[in-house]
Design a protein that fits this description.
This protein is an alpha/beta fold. It folds into two domains: 187 residues, Thiamin diphosphate (ThDP)-binding fold, Pyr/PP domains (Rossmann fold), CATH 3.40.50; 128 residues, Rossmann fold, CATH 3.40.50. It is built from 13 helices and 14 strands. Helix 3 packs parallel to helix 8. The radius of gyration is 23 Å and the shape is globular. It starts with a helix and ends with a helix. This is Pyruvate dehydrogenase E1 component subunit beta. Its cofactor is thiamine diphosphate. Its main location: mitochondrion.
Length: 359
């Protein structure tokens, strides 16, 4: 009765007010979660769910991780499940691979994926090839994870993107999350997978907060490996990216929308397997494609997408050549102004979109 009187006095429609109130009651709750916390939650939930899961790496235990991704896990699970290792990537990666072959499910953290080059023999020759060489009799359920790509002010030896490196190798699954929801859902899927998974995080995203749906807050939330996500619908041109540069694409799309150019933005999530079906469907709709990545141009993720578009049915829908936006083909400089000019910026994406559309 009080609601009815209030609506009469204010001239509002009582039914619309009731509907709006009911919608807010039933609307899914969104919370802000950083990528770092999403990764921590994923590992915590999987450690709790399966006693075969354990984490090892440099400073992951007592120090809570170099980037605090394993914060609180050592205190909760102890030395047997959260293991500090010496600074010897080939050694502890080999231990992790052996334990996976023996029936455990290790998460092997590299302080940065640049250091994974020390352990690449274990990752490729031991983990990736074993299932094939054993005719499927021996699985290797292991996750290699850590920060990937360029950071800020760490120069050439700490600023490489390994998406193309590991995406090149059969026997591996390679994931590259952007949002907190990606990070949690994909890491849980990787830990549960019976194959070796390379999980490429981004250091500059760790502290970035994203809205996370009520569904993603569940302990049962898992994202499918090998499935991309359309982050923004559009009709004029398709932008395909992964990791941090999905955000750059969305920012560029927001700017271009003000000029009447509606971009469709695809978040790859998975580098291997690659979801070409989603990309091809988008290209069939927009007739234009720009790929965006932080890695080097030669033999990169964008190069692979371009080749598959040229070889497949989507080629017939293109109204202009595919354009790649990539990092510059040089080792990363240390100076900030040079570093900024060595990786894709929003202006570079906008320029490439207009070039593709001949605007």
């Amino acid at each position: 009765m009080a609601l009815l009187k209030s609506c009469v006095r204010s001239g509002r429609n009582v039914f619309s007010v009731i509907l709006r109130r009911e919608f807010h009651k039933t609307a899914p709750a969104l919370v802000q979660v950083t990528v770092r916390d999403a990764l921590t939650q994923a590992m915590d939930e999987e450690l709790e769910r399966d006693e075969r899961v354990f984490l090892l790496g440099e400073e992951v235990a007592q120090y809570d991780g170099a980037y605090k991704v394993s914060r609180g896990l050592w205190k909760k699970y102890g030395d047997k499940r959260i293991i500090d290792t010496p600074i010897t990537e080939m050694g502890f990666a080999g231990i992790a691979v052996g334990s996976a072959m023996a029936g455990l499910r290790p998460i092997c953290e590299f302080m940065t994926f640049n250091f994974s080059m020390q352990a690449i023999d274990q990752i490729i020759n031991s983990a990736a090839k074993t299932s094939y060489m054993s005719a499927g009799l021996q699985s290797v359920p292991i996750v290699f994870r850590g920060p990937n790509g360029h950071s800020a002010g760490v120069a050439a030896q700490h600023s490489q993107c390994f998406a193309a490196w590991y995406g090149h190798c059969p026997g591996l699954k390679v994931l590259s999350p952007w949002s907190a929801e990606d990070a949690k859902g994909l890491l849980k899927a990787a830990i549960r997978d019976d194959n070796p998974v390379v999980f490429l995080e981004n250091e500059l995203l760790y502290g970035v907060a994203f809205e996370v749906s009520e569904e993603a807050q569940s302990k049962d939330f898992v994202l499918p490996i090998g499935k991309a996500k359309v982050e923004r619908q559009g009709t004029r041109i398709t932008l395909v990216s992964h990791s941090r540069y999905v955000g750059h694409c969305l920012d560029a799309a927001a700017v271009l929308a003000k000029e009447g150019i509606e971009c469709e933005v695809i978040n790859l999530r998975s580098i291997r397997p690659l979801d070409m079906e989603t990309i091809e469907s988008s290209v069939a709709k927009t007739n234009h494609l720009v790929t965006v990545e932080g890695g080097w141009p030669q033999f990169g993720v964008g190069a692979e997408i371009c080749a598959r578009i040229m070889e497949g049915p989507a080629f017939n829908y293109l109204d202009a050549p595919v354009i790649r936006v990539t990092g510059v083909d040089i080792p990363m400089p240390y100076a900030k102004i040079l570093e900024d000019n060595s990786v894709p910026q929003i202006k570079d994406i906008i320029f490439s979109v207009k070039k593709s559309l001949n605007i």
